[in-house]
Each structure stands twice: as C-alpha cells, then as structure tokens.
Amino acid sequence: MELSNTPQIRDLFDHPVLLNELIDEIPTGIVLLDDSRRVLRMNRFLAALTGFPTEETLRYRMPCRQVLRSRLCVTGCPAKGMTAHSEPVTIESDLIDRNRQLIPVRITLSPLRDDRGELAGFLESVEDLRPMRHSHARQEGGYRLSGMIGKSPPMEKVFRLIPAIAQSDSSVLITGETGTGKDMAAEAIHMASPRSKGTFVKVNCGALPETLLESELFGHRKGAFTGAIENKPGRFRMAHNGTLFLTEIGDLPLPLQVKLLTFLDDHVVYPLGSPKGFEADVRVVAGTHRDLAGMVREGRFREDLLFRLNVVRIHLPPLRERDEDVRLLLDHFLNTFVERFGKPISGFSADVLALLSRYPYPGNVRELRNIVEYAVNVCNEAKIRPKDLPAYLSEPAGTESFFSGPSSPLETGQTDPSGDPSPEPGGPIPEEGKTWTEVEREMIMDALIRAKGKRGQAAEILGWGRSTLWRKMKQHGLDGT
Amino acid sequence: MKKVLIPVYGAEIAPRFDLATEVLLFFKSREKEGWDERILVVSHSSAEELCRLILKEDVEMVICGGIEDEYYQYLKWKGVAVIDSVAGPWDRIPQRLTAEDLTAGAVLYDPL
C-alpha cells in the first residue's frame, strides 16, 4: 500500500500526519475496525504478534476474528451489541498466531463515534501477556525458565546466564544440537529483557530460498520484482523495538550474510527496491546447530559476521550431558500428556525407566518428549511398559523408526556443534565405512529416483518437509546449482 | 474416497481449530466428479476431540484457521495433511481443491 494512500490525521498538528506512522509507534497491538468488525487498519506490533501481514489484511478487509483468532472472537465477541455509548471492555483471553503459538493476551475494545455521535467502528488494543507470565514463572523459581526445564549443572549455568544476558543489548549466538531448546532460550532472553514489551520475531534462515528470504527479512517495495504487488515491511521492521531471532543462521546464504553484517553495523534496513532506509532498533539473536567456526574455515560463513554475532554465546548442552534432567523431563512430559489425553497413567515401569535413562537421545529433549507422547498415546494400563515405547528404542540396529513416518515433527539433518555429523534420531544406522553424510545423500537420491524427480513426493518418502529436503539437497549439491 | 475436514464457524472456516463445534466433511470418490458434504456437530469444542474424530473418520486432509503447533504436528505425524491459517468462506474450498490451488495462509475472501 502506498504511503500516499494511507489515511491522515488532520486538524491536530500543523500539517496532516499519517495515521499508520502514528499507530505503528505504539508498543501494543492496535486495530481499527469498521462497524461490521472488519479490519480497517492495524499497527506493526499487532502484525508481528498475529503474524498476519498488514497489507494482506487490508487488501481483503478481513473480519477481525480471522486475524486476531482470539478465544473471545468465538466464545462471545464483546463488540456484538456494543453501541456508540457503551463503555470500553477489557478481557483476558488468548490468540493463536500464524506460527501456531497460543499467546495469552489482554484485549480492550472501545466503540468509536463519528461526528454525529453514531457508532463508526471500534478501537481494539491487544496486549501480549507473555512477559508478565514469564516474570511470574521466574518468581516461582524451581527448575524451569520460560519453558526450559533442568536441574543439572550445565542447565543451572544456562539459567543463571540468560537473565544476565537479557539485560544487555548485545547480539547473542545460541548453539546446541537439534532439540536442545535454542528457540526457547532465545524467547527466554527476549522475555527477560527490557525489550519484552516489543515483539519477538523468529525467522528460519534455512526454510526459504535466498530471494524469498531476502524479501522476508528486509522487506520490499511494490514493483521491486515480479510479483511484488505491494510493499512488504520485512521481519527486521516488524521486530523494531524487539528481538529478531534468526534460527539456522548457518544456512543464511553468503550474500545475505553481507546484508546482515551491514545491518549489525549501522542498524538501517534497506527494503528491496527502496533507496530509503529504515532505522530499526532490533536486537539480533541467532541460533544454529552447525559449527560456524568450521564453516568459516571452509569459506561458507563470513568470519566478520561470526565475530559480530558471537558477542555473547550460550551453548545448550545435549541431553546426554544432562543425566540429572532425564527423569525430571520424563515426569514433566508424562504429566503434560496424561493431562492432555485424559489417560489414567501413573508413571513408568522400572524397566522402562532403566531403558530411557540409558538411551542417548540424539534428538535431545524434543526426542524425549516425542517418545513420551507416543507412549502415552499407546499405553492402556496404569504404567508405561516397554511394549508402549517406539520400537526403535529396543531395536537399536533396526530400521523402523518412530520418526521415519510421514512429516515427522523432528528437525532433520542435524550435525552436532563439533561439526561431526550425527544421524537422524532413530534413523537408519549408517553402514560400516560410510559417514552419515554419505548415507543421507544416498537416501535423498534414492527417494528422488523413487519419486521420479518430484520433490514433494520425495520429501514425503523421506518423512521430511519440502523445505528440509530443499535445504539438504542444497547442502549435498543436489539442487542443480 | 478422499476425505477433507474443515472446522467451520457459520459460513466461514472457523478461526480456531480448538474452538470449533461444527465441522464439515467433504468427500470425493474416484468415480464421481464433484464433492459431497456432511456437517458434523461435536458435543463441545476441544482440539483433542477433533483430532480423535479426524483419525476415526480416516480424514486425509484438514483445512483450518488457527491451530496450535501441538495438534498440527500430531496430525502430521498421523499422516494427515494440514493446511492451516486459511480464512474465508468454506464454500470456495471445493473449487480450490479441485484446482489444487490451496496453500497454508490462503485468504478466500474477495479483495477490495
């Protein structure tokens, strides 16, 4: 949407002021609705909170309920029956954003009157309650921080480090194997920081091809390239006054590494096709399971960018180095899933506990969680027994895998921070003499042959998402570039 | 027989998977061209209940609005395709399905 087309506020300042610019600076979600509760305007904060791009919402003048997706919208929208003279209403609720996260919010809705005193529409403000909940959780103490659980010495160190790091504004690099909780750590840093009232925006650098990623991160101007039918603010802009978490930073293509480095130096974002920059006050937190130092040696990652990101570094230990936490996590996830699935399961049998305590968990906490979820689903007795566990746990050399089904929730293709390739959790054991990388390459080739070159079908065969297959084909040089 | 389930809210796709009390099942057999539909009313809104229904009915694809990641991943793990964050009137879905032109985040309203 062109700036010249945006509504203006007149008769207040010496010259008209653009409404968008005014509401975009308010550090809480703001949406203006017409009298049919369709979205007329929303600010940048709400776009970041819900994940809905402002332009798309306006282009379709979408009903508020389809954008906000709060519990209130379905169980009883307070705007229904509101008159021009109704009092504002404030209610705590929750919403589901486009990243599929349930976010606690406080919604305040007020009627707006026109110059004749009649109902013109509504003003809705949406406050993200996560920072408040987070501080309550911190006060509760115990063995958890923002969803991360542990009492082992390495985790205690992480828990001590995060609040201290949060108070600074330096770039942070979070390293750790897949499933160790890098996303949670990044969010914990944001929540504990003075930026917690701002937005936390996450971008997976490995999930999009280079051209799309550039536009996603830095935004673009209408007409910058074919298909750029409207201005797009980009994630940096959406994270203004907040935190931008760049996960899988090791997958960021070299040209974008330069652009990121430039941003870290001058804090100005230049959308594609725009000569005008935007000064974004954004804290960058990056996460990776890769050995960035090794990638620097191989010329695949810029050394200067590594230095800029590595100002503060947190390493999340793998579960095999957190012996004390396995039991804690097993009990935690058991309680979670027992409650969720409504099953009368009281615990694990002794032999299951022995087996699960010995298992090395290459997929870390995420794998442990999935094992417990599987077991709770399958178990029909009071205690979880070995037969309720995924088969691959008792058949270490077997080929059947809990995670090899379609669209496994696990991330794939991870290497540990030392750079040594580690197999997929529960995946086939590499044949003697072959590295995991070689086996993985063969698996991809085989799937592509079986799918007659159709990537979507090959991804299904492998049980991966399309983006994972795309990323891995690129890693293995199978993408034809 | 292809089965597609859509949690609905009146004439629209329900904004939230976990709060839907009404679902629409679209069927398509190999022999027939168009889609048949059936509306099911669930006793109370619950994401767990909907997941159970989806598995019981052997649904292949779910088209919905907002869905929590837990349930999204669970359904995917069970082999159910999920196209989420779709907004708009559900009666436009059969046409989009036939044209294979429906992706996550699709807006089915007419632009202004």
Q: How does this model look, in words?
A:
- The complex is a heterodimer of chains A (about 475) and B (about 110).
- The model of chain A is unreliable at about 395-435 (pLDDT under 50).
- Chain A has 19 helices and 18 strands.
- In chain A, helix 18 packs across helix 19 (about 465-475).
- Helix content of chain A is about 40%, strand content about 15%.
- Chain A has helices spanning about 20-25, 45-50, 55-60, 65-70, 70-75, 130-140, 155-165, 180-190, 210-220, 235-240, 255-265, 290-295, 305-310, 325-340, 350-360, 365-380, 435-450, 455-460, 465-475, and strands spanning about 10, 15-20, 30-35, 40, 90-95, 100-115, 120-130, 145, 150, 170-175, 200-205, 245, 270, 280, 285-290, 310-315, 345-350, 385.
- In chain A, strand 5 (about 90-95) and strand 6 form a beta hairpin.
- The longest helix of chain A has 19 residues, at about 325-340.
- Chain B has about 110 residues and is α/β, with parallel strands linked by helices.
- In chain B, about 20% of the residues lie in helices and about 25% in strands.
- Chain B has helices at about 45-55, 70-75, 95-100; strands at about 1-10, 10-15, 20-30, 35-40, 60-65, 80-85.
- In chain B, strand 1 and strand 2 form a beta hairpin.
- Chains A and B meet through helix 3, helix 4 and helix 5 of A and helix 2 of B.
